[in-house]
Design a protein that fits this description.
globular; 14 strands; alpha/beta; 6-stranded mixed β-sheet; single chain; Rossmann fold; Alpha-Beta Plaits; 305 residues
Length: 305
């Protein structure tokens, strides 16, 4: 059974078509990524899937339950972390989590045990009795996630869950996503972090201007643009872009303390770089070749947005 089946979703706001004939199928047990530039229709689609917005046309089923016809049953199968979080600032961390458990009809003993377990997993045991308004953004997001997963939802939906988080909070969020998936939850993840999607997701849909422009595994999407291979290189001293000008090299971009050299034929490019290094008396600090990245595929699929 599909965890999520959205068919031909359409939503307009005045003269603007935010989502135009979008269909998504998410297999049970997977981590599914939903990517797109700002304004592409990601959040509007998520709001229709979760029943917050009613589509102008189309339908959504969560584990076979029609969201529009039986919204309560469908929503009981979900844990949702919207883009702006869901915490109550005037409650403590543990009160937030317990309150959500109560909304889902959990037994008091079970929800108290589960709340302690999740708060500890997210590194907030020492702050569990503190008012949430005193928390950082990262800590508030961790409480949002704790509240969303207290009832062990079959479907976990996260809209940009790591945006603006510090490294520690981001790692905890990602580890929690993986753990929930390993425990049986299907995950629908929207993110701007391309490498995060590459590391987490088994399948990805890319939306642009309200339409799905590609769906597939990260590796399949990368291979769509297999001419975009690059060589990442650094020398023992600073060089300018002119030394990379040669037949077979499409472009060179600074990348931190390195350069990325894009080429249709890495063999020709590497031989040129060796020649340049000998001529300019440069020493290689590092050099590696890479296949196309998911970021390259994303940019190609959404350029002009």
């Amino acid at each position: 059974m599909d965890a999520v089946r959205a068919d031909n979703l359409r939503k307009t706001f005045g003269t603007v078509t935010a989502v135009d004939d979008v269909s998504i199928k998410i297999p049970e047990g997977s981590i599914f990524g939903f990517l797109g530039p700002n304004g592409a229709g990601k959040t509007t689609t998520i709001r229709m899937i979760t029943g917050v917005l009613i589509p102008d046309s189309g339908s959504v089923r969560i584990f076979g339950t029609d969201v529009r016809r039986d919204p309560l049953t469908a929503k009981m199968k979900m844990g949702v972390i919207p883009e702006n979080g869901t915490v109550y600032s005037d409650l403590t961390a543990v009160q937030n989590v317990l309150l959500t458990g109560k909304f889902y009809g959990m037994d008091k003993t079970v929800r108290e045990r589960r709340a302690e377990e999740i708060i500890a997993r997210l590194g907030l045991s020492e702050r569990k009795n503190d008012i949430v308004r005193t928390f950082s953004k990262g800590m508030r997001q961790r409480i949002s996630i704790a509240s969303a997963i207290i009832h062990s939802p079959p479907l976990l939906i996260l809209d940009e869950p790591t945006t603006g988080l510090d490294v520690y909070s981001r790692r905890l969020v990602i580890d929690t996503i993986r753990q929930m998936n390993s425990e049986g939850s299907t995950v629908l993840l929207t993110t701007h972090n391309i490498e995060e999607a590459n590391a987490l997701c088994s399948d990805i849909s890319i939306i642009n201007s309200g339409k799905i422009v590609a769906t597939g595994s990260p590796e399949k999407l990368k291979k769509t643009f297999d001419t975009s291979r690059y060589i990442e290189i650094s020398f023992d001293r600073t060089v300018g872009p002119d030394i990379f000008s040669a037949p077979g090299i499409n472009r060179a971009e600074p990348w931190g303390d390195k350069w990325r050299i894009y080429s249709d034929d890495p063999d020709i490019a590497v031989k040129h770089l060796v020649h340049v290094a000998e001529r300019e008396k440069l020493a290689f600090v590092s050099i590696r070749t890479s296949n196309p990245t998911l970021e390259e595929a994303f940019v190609k699929l959404t350029e002009g947005a």
